[in-house]
Amino acid sequence: MRITNWRTSVAVAAVALGLGAGCSPALLEGGELDGERETFGPKLQGSSLHGGPLGDFRVNFAAALAPDGTAMTGWLNKGSLEGSGGRTGAALVGSVFSGISGSGGALKFKIMAWSQHHNPYVPTTCDAPGDDSDYVVRYKVGAGAYKDFCTGGGLAIAVTGYWNAAGDHTSSMASFTFSCLQNPVPTAGVITKCFDWCYKPYLGGAMEHLHFACTRMARADICAVGKANTIDNTFIDSWDVAGVVGTDCTAAAPGLPQSNPATACTDSGKYPVMEFEAAWRAGWSGANNEPKEAAAICLSKKRWQTIPVRGFCETELIDPRDDDRGKYCDDFTQAELIAAGALHFNYSGFYDIGLYRVDKASDSFVSSDSTGTTVPSYASGLGYTTITFEGALWRQPPTNAVLLATYQKGGDFRTSTKAPAGYTLVRNEGYCVDSRKAKPTSTARLLYCYSKGADFLTTTQATAPAGYSKCTRRQECWLPY
User: Fold this and answer.
1) Model pTM?
2) Minimal CA–CA distance to 147: which of 135, 137, 155, 157?
3) Residue 370 needs a FRET pair 20 to 30 A away by CA distance; which of 5, 33, 159, 468 works?
């Protein structure tokens, strides 16, 4: 019997990739020393590749300008930019590198400040002093004005190679990319996150490929098309087949779990109970006439259960709930996962509850007590029929959380973050974020209230339906998406 949300377990084992020099073990905040690998514990993943305003782009080493305006050629020495004439570190401040966008537009990148790289996941021994650098970078498109590459003039790292719009990475000796740091942590590009999780692409070979695959996992880019299937601020725990990073999720086997990793991942309450999510490889979008390959080899669950999978990979990742040709994670042997290219594995929690709009001719409300096909039991027989997916609620309260609840008066229902006069509480639905606060995620949407006489409508629809006007509390709250 198969359960409908792909919640199954899989056993995986470490396989040596011959990385040579790399990360050595360290005791990390939120992790533990297992004698073989870094164990970071809960890590905040993200939805952005670079963390900056540009889509796909690359920066050129050649034809750069030194701070004094003379010609300069650049290169990367590990994680630090250097330039001809012995320029490095602060001596590069004021230099300008040319670049090109994915659409072919001319770009310029100006180094405004330099500092030694600070890894927020400290202490860690994969960051030797002086190896890596941070930069304040400004950019301009064509003849336009310079703008901050990272929000608020935040820091960026320089990483070898570049990524296209589909998230495919290309190794290059001629080009590099910038990616924003954790400023704050959730806004960092996943290129930086994976770099700071000890996957240093400048080590080349297998390590570069581990970093590439990590960027797919961190964004839950299931179909390898550059589409994130997750929300900023989401915790995951992950480990890899090379032993660079382990997980402390399973108390019986810190590092790489040997059996049934879906059963125990609480980490002393630092994050919600997690279960095994997926096995990941780098994947490929099909660009350059190369075969298309999904990044997720199999799924036990989605990171956010109610997000429809973005991207199309029904051929490469067949859903076993709909097609007998598909495989669940527990249908694979360890050898088959490795042979299929698995490089990373991860846990994730159950973060969201589906929110559905339930309608009848003169009333509408939203509820998480629905499967998307049935009216909530408490509204059965009262004329409510149409059911529409509106978005999601958090299961656990996020920062600036408010509780969304459904109230009843006779045969009418109203969903609100504040109890309406004359109504009685039916059920608490879940958590959203106060609408007076800043937009909590890049995908967040407002939940609105509209009224027509004594009739109320709660929806993410941004314009009032015919005959309705916005309630006094016209914006109930922010939904995560």
Assistant:
1) 0.84
2) 137
3) 468
